[in-house]
Hints:
Layout: H1 2-30, H2 37-53, H3 63-114, H4 148-159, E1 166-171, H5 178-187, H6 189-195, E2 199-205, H7 210-220, H8 230-242, E3 249-256, H9 261-266, E4 274-280, E5 291-292, H10 298-309, H11 321-330, H12 335-345, H13 350-366, H14 370-383, H15 389-396, E6 407-408, H16 409-419, H17 424-436, E7 441-444, E8 456-459, H18 462-472, E9 482-487, H19 494-498, E10 502-503, E11 508-513, E12 524-525, E13 531-536, E14 540-542, E15 555-560, E16 566-569, E17 582-586, E18 588-589, H20 594-597, E19 605-609, E20 629-633, E21 653-657, E22 677-679, E23 701-703, E24 725-728, E25 748-751, H21 753-760, E26 770-773
Parallel strand pairs: 1-4, 1-5, 2-3, 3-4, 9-11, 10-12, 11-13, 13-15, 14-16, 15-17, 16-18, 17-19, 19-20, 20-21, 21-22, 22-23, 23-24, 24-25, 25-26
Antiparallel strand pairs: 6-8, 7-8
Helix pairs in contact: 1-2, 1-3, 2-3, 7-8, 10-11, 10-12, 11-13, 12-14, 13-14, 15-17, 16-17
Amino acid sequence: MFAPTLKLLEDTMESIRPSINRIETLNRQFDRPDEIKGLQELMKKGEDLVRKCSKIHRYNYVKKPLYTRKLVELDESIRRYINTILPLYLTSDVKETLYEIELLSTQIRKLDIGASSAGVSGGGGSNKSGFAGVCSPPGLKVVPVGLEIALQDLKEKLLKDDEVSQVIAVSAPGGCGKTTLATALCQDANVKGKYRSNIFFVTVSKSPNMMVIVERLFQHMHSNTGFLSEEDAVHRLENLLRSRGPEPILLVLDDVWSGAESLVEKLKFPITDYKILVTSRFEFPRFGPSYKLKTLNNADAMTLFCQLAFLRDGNSYRPDQDVVNKMVEVCKGFPLAISVVGKSLCGKSAAEWSKRIKECSKASSILSNFEFELLHCLQSSVDALKNNTSAKECYMDLGSFPEDQKIPASTLTDMWMEWHKLEEDEAIANLYELSERNLIDLVFTRKDASEDYGSINVLQHDLLRELAIIQSSSGSIEHRKRLFLDISGNNIPEWWAEQRQQFIRANLLSICTDNMFSSNWCSIEAPEVEVLVLNFQTKNYTLPRFMRGMDKLKVLVVTNYGFFHAELSNFQLVGSLSNLKRIRLEKVSIPSFFLASVQLEKLEKISLVMCSIGQALSDSAIHLPNVVEINIDYCNDLVELPNGICDLVRLKKLSITNCHKLSALPEDLGNLVNLEVLRLKSCIEMLELPDTIGRLHKLRILDISECLSLTKLPEQISELNSLRKLYMIDCSSCELPWSVVNLVHLMEVIGDEETANSWKAFEPFLPNLAITVYKDVNLNWLR
């Protein structure tokens, strides 16, 4: 046995030696523990034993039996180590690696999906990580006209290397194109080439909040917030920007108002080649002379006007050149006026052109102030909505929201459907009508918004917002249909403070307060209010007691634009609103007695956006007999839904999106027999869908996009015989059961390329199916 046993041991050691050397190298490279130390010791013994055995004479029958036994024992020891002990180390390594991969995967998910969770000002684009961020520059909708000289002048300033930080201010009246100019600069190839991922775009507005601005920048760069004070926030921002070096940095502060110089000063850090571009209606002498943006000259004004007023196919009415010249002339070279007036005249008759010229010319002869002239010119475009009085009424409602803030289209449709008695499709049509006339901008968070207007947001120029407020402010306070109150600090309007019990007949009441407001409300009697919009910025906010007398209130919108989630006091007042149909809460901490407070017979829709849920939904018993729609979006502490939600048998739409900790739906989901739309987009920890989903026989739309942990669809999915549209974007790891061949009425699957390929195997069995590959991701709405 001696010779074959020796040969066996030699072969064993020779075969495993390369693997041992490779493991040793990797351990040194990655500073890993030495799990093969025991095996190395056995190999050393093996080498010594083989060396001794090779010297034994072939006829030494005394030593051969002794060493044969040693060879067998050592070979068995090596094999036992490889087959028993080493696999334990390997298993441990695999588990550790999987854990690290999961941590990395979670971070990537948060970067990819969480970039859109801020819900604050900022645009599309990419940050240092390659993901779209909340403070990236917005995209240009059209090629700027007449800004070539300004672009070249400012580019020279931005491209110049400076050892110290610099503030470059651009000033001009409202509507001159300052924001368009700043956007075009950020999108310029040379500017992007210099500043790369260090371009940050923040809209400041009339009532700036330093903590919110810094929070946006930290969110953009995926850094942790949690500031102790404003001073701490500014200090940490300086350190964060320094860490972005040595690349140059460009911070754009758009729409800075008079009195905000101190804010700009605080953001001016002593960092090499760090520039701040400020756009404003005002000049800031402490930062040096402003670059004064001029209105368009006649040639550029004519070019822009013709682009917008006349269809490219040449089919629209085109008056004599003299008429066009007069129309351009009354716009005074303001790009905003040219855009709005041009759009509103596109396709109109000769009589309409003549009427509009007279109106605008009359305004020009009476008014001397540029801004008043501009507002009157814009007014004529709003008046042109006379054939659609519904759209004009809807436009007037836009003054309900703070300037430079996104307005969810779903909020507007809630208001319009209840107050103006519009159908849902009519409300959406009015949005498009206003957009086509350049009175608002529509921003879509997904390419296909036809079935989900919750993915549409509205942006409005502050002058157009101001025009809506002016139009709504005619007549005495108590007789206005709409009452917009903008309260700075605790400076309550005199007319309100002087009256112990002010009476108003408004149907729409909007109150905007800033971060200094102490919730010290005066009394008001508003029995006719049907829509109440409360916009605030404080960490603690008290709902006004006068809500109790709003017997006709149908829509309540409470939005916190501040830095922290807000604690609401007096929330129990909601329980007294017997006619309330729709409630929307944004960025507030939902009180634990929420469900008890909203158990209203007429309530039809609940929307919770970026809220801290806490224990608010822990009660399994829910009495909401007429609720047909529930939307929960970006509520990051939502872990589970109460079982009682499955008792809401009238529910038609259930949307739980971007709730990253939600891992499962109630098992009795199938009890929602009238459910038509179920959206679960970006619930990244959702592990499975309940088997009872098959009982949702009225379900038309199912969206499980970006449910990254969902590994398979239940077999019962095949029982959804009304399913028409299925969203499965970024669901490539989700396995499709063979039973999907029974979804014969399924019209469209929208998914990423891999998901689309997995569905192609079932196309022969689903003759009505169209598979759409979805590639567009748009985060511009975050502005």
